[in-house]
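Next up, a chain.

===
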Amino acid sequence: MSELREMAMKSRAWPFEEARKLVKRYSKAPPEKGYVLFETGYGPSGLPHIGTFGEVARTTMVRRAFETLSDIPTRLICFSDDMDGMRKVPGNVPNRDELALDLNLPLTRVRDPFGCHDSFGAHNNAQLRAFLDQFGFEYEFASSTEYYKSGRFDEMLLTALERFDKILEIMLPTLGEERRATYSPFLPISPKTGHVLQVPTLERNVAKGTIVYQEPDGEKVEIPVTGGNVKMQWKPDWAMRWAALGVDYEMSGKDLIDSVTQATRICRALGKPQPETLTYELFNDENGQKISKSKGNGLSMEEWLTYAAPESLSYFMYLKPKTAKRLYFDVIPKAVDEYHQQLRAYETQDLKARLNNPVWHIHGGNPPKSHMVVSFAMLLNLASVAGAKDKEGLWGFIRRYAPEASPETHPDLDQAAGFAVRYFNDFVAPTRQFRLPDEKERAALEDLARRLRTHDGVEDAETLQSLVFSVGKEHGFEPLRNWFKAIYEVLFGASQGPRFGGFIALYGVQETIALIERALAGELADKAEQG
């Protein structure tokens, strides 16, 4: 066993812990199908969103971890439930009146309201593939409609027909009285209307592989359960898919715990082992409320990528998947800076530490080098005091601080500078609240400006931080963080900020002296009141 594999088998990083479930699953013999199958599911009634990204990103992390531990080949299927009937017209599409005519049709038979694909399902599937391709995910796309119609599910559908009563035994206790009376695991696709029908199964013929149901007009119809003539209800459908394809691993949100429980039992009833699963916590907004697409609270995929690179989002997704996290704009700067801290740490870590580092999992064991010689938090404060309208306004300061840096040699820093200006103008500037210093703070700030004026030593971040630190101590700030809090509130209009010595080194000693003088003269507070 290689050192890498040996270390990975002991790693406490959650993707390795998940991957070891699969190693144990096939410890005696490899899968008959010849590979380990990972799956993520997608409902194509809407566009891909931040949860879609999170699920595929996290599943990919487990897949890469497994590939480190085992020589068994792997596949990842992104499965689209595009044979579902459209139950309501989405509120965010054009031509809604026309779309209403297609209610209850499978999504792959609903007209495309955008007029660019054969169906609404095809349109959203194309969006999903483009979305996944944008982030470089390695996956295979799978369509429910295609799998049902091509016969890929036929054998397992016939098994489900044979074990109809076992499936009912599992499902009926979970349903309300009214639904129990009419529930069937099979949903016929009407040969008359094309609708996906929620109707009882009146008769079953296992030998012929058919069911009998009643059309809304009263006619009794017999159809095969194979060949795309029916689809299964959600939980039996999920279980049937697991059984038919031999899915080995799938994760899902906390809201699907009951679905996983029932699907697991149905999969066993179909005679196949259930996959290994992970239940992840859902995201909350800044007020602790569950994020909902219909409510529009929380943070969207597009919004995150407006202010930060996708790697920072992958980092956020990596962190404690079983713990609820708040997903809103304030988490972006922290995620960006922590991601780059981990990249820098990776360069000096031993193998054990690297395997526990999030960037190993984000980048499949081959993370890039960070060129962020200035933190995102520092860039935000620089944008504040420099009044920068674009990233070029920051580069004059960055070049003086780090002469070796340029947009060409430090592309991640260049990109972050643009994001920082945008984030500052949209979120920081409108919420700044400058204040005047009290007497104690004024005396300390005057002393700081005086010491900076007479400072003739090196102007690196650590030296300047020590100077700021000593001023706070000598002026009796206890705890010392109150001194830094005063600096941030008086100079930046915020209660927290970056290491101030690093900021002075970046912004410039003379520029910082001028900033302190403006604050002491009341110009920053006056400007804030006028703004």
About this structure: The chain is about 50% helix and 10% strand. The longest strand covers residues 36-42. The chain has a mean pLDDT of 93. Residues 376-431 form one domain.
